[in-house]
Design a protein that fits this description.
Farnesyl Diphosphate Synthase; two-stranded antiparallel sheet; 16 helices; about 300 residues; mainly alpha
C-alpha cells in the first residue's frame, strides 16, 4: 500500500470513529452538536491521529486497530479541532476560513463556537475514559499526556499565550522556540507518545517516540511558517500572510526562508534517527516525517 493509500484508509477509519464517538446533530441540544461537527468534519488531514496509530504500530510491529489506539487517536483530533475553533475567533487570530470552509464562529456565532471548543475538549477526555484496559493506570497515563500537552506549562495553551504576547515584539530565536515547542510541538509529541502508551510500549520505546515527536513537531511548524509566506489562501485553505500582518514571531522572520528550509530538513533527519530501534514497524512514521517537510498545504 502506498503512503497516499495508507493515509486515505486511516483518515476514513478516524472519521468513522469520530462520527461514532461524537453526539449526532439531532441530539439535544442540537445546535452545539452541529457546531462541533461543522469543524470536526471540515476536511482535516488527521495527522495527529495517524501519527498516534502509526506509533502504536511501531511498538507492536503490526497494524494497530484496537479500540484503545483508535480512542486515543480520536481524542487528539478533538483537542486539535477545539484549538482551531478558538484560534480562529476574533479575539485571537480572527480568521473567516479554515480548511477552505467558513470557520465555526462565522456559521454559528462566537458564543456557540466557544462552547463547541469547550465541548470537544470535554469529549476528548470522556473518550479516553471509555477505554477498557487490563491495567487502568494506562488510561490515567493517556489522560495525563493529553492534558499536559494541551495545558499552560509547556503545552498548547501556554504556547498560544506566548504567541499572542509576542506579537510586535522583536523576533528572537529564544522566543520563537518557546512558542512553537509548546503551541504546535506539544500536541504532535503527545500524539506519538499516546500511541506508544496505548499499545503497551516500554519506557525506552516511549522515549524514542517522544524524540521523534519533538523533531517532527518542530519541522511541522517551520514548514507551516514557510507556507504562510509562500502559498496562496486557496492552497492553504485559510488566510495566507496573516503571520506577517499580525507581527507574529515565525521561523522566516527570525532565520529567513532559506535557513528555515534547511532547519526543517535537519529536524526531519533527526526524526528519522530517533526511530532506529524500531525497524520496519516504523515505516509509516518515517514516511510521515518526509511528508510533513515536503507538503504544500
Amino acid at each position: 500500500m502506498t503512503l497516499k493509500e495508507f493515509l486515505i484508509e486511516r483518515q476514513r477509519q478516524v472519521d468513522a470513529a469520530l462520527d461514532r464517538l461524537t453526539p449526532p446533530e439531532i441530539e439535544h441540544p442540537a445546535t452545539i452538536h452541529r457546531a462541533m461537527r461543522h469543524s470536526l468534519f471540515a476536511g482535516g488531514k488527521r495527522i495527529r491521529p495517524i501519527l498516534c496509530m502509526s506509533a502504536a504500530t511501531a511498538v507492536t510491529g503490526v497494524q494497530e486497530d484496537s479500540d484503545a489506539v483508535i480512542h486515543a487517536a480520536c481524542s487528539l483530533e478533538m483537542i486539535h479541532t477545539y484549538s482551531l475553533i478558538h484560534d480562529d475567533l476574533p479575539a485571537l487570530d480572527n480568521d473567516d476560513f479554515r480548511r477552505g470552509k467558513p470557520t465555526c464562529h462565522k456559521v454559528y456565532g462566537e458564543a456557540m463556537a466557544i462552547l463547541a471548543g469547550d465541548a470537544l475538549f470535554t469529549l476528548a477526555i470522556q473518550t479516553l475514559t471509555t477505554i477498557q484496559f487490563a491495567e487502568p493506570g494506562r488510561v490515567v497515563s493517556l489522560i495525563r499526556e493529553l492534558s499536559f500537552a494541551s495545558g499552560t506549562v509547556d503545552g498548547m495553551i501556554g504556547g498560544q499565550v506566548t504567541d499572542i504576547e509576542g506579537e510586535r515584539q522583536h523576533p528572537t530565536a529564544e522566543l520563537l522556540d518557546s512558542i512553537h515547542r509548546a503551541k504546535t510541538g506539544a500536541l504532535l509529541r503527545a500524539s506519538v507518545r499516546m500511541g506508544g502508551i496505548a499499545a503497551g510500549g516500554d519506557a525506552q520505546q516511549i522515549e524514542a517516540l517522544s524524540n521523534y515527536g519533538e523533531h517532527v513537531g518542530l519541522a511541522f511548524q517551520i514548514v507551516d511558517d514557510i507556507l504562510d509566506v509562500e502559498e496562496s489562501s486557496e492552497a492553504l485553505g485559510k488566510t495566507a500572510g496573516k503571520d506577517a500582518a499580525q507581527g507574529k514571531i515565525t521561523f522566516p522572520a527570525v532565520y529567513g526562508l532559506e535557513r528555515s528550509r534547511e532547519m526543517a530538513s535537519e529536524q526531519c533527519r533527526l526524526a528519522h534517527e530517533s526511530l532506529s530501534s524500531f525497524g520496519e514497524g516504523a515505516q509509516r512514521l518515517h514516511e510521515i516525517a518526509d511528508l510533513i517537510v515536503q507538503r504544500k498545504s
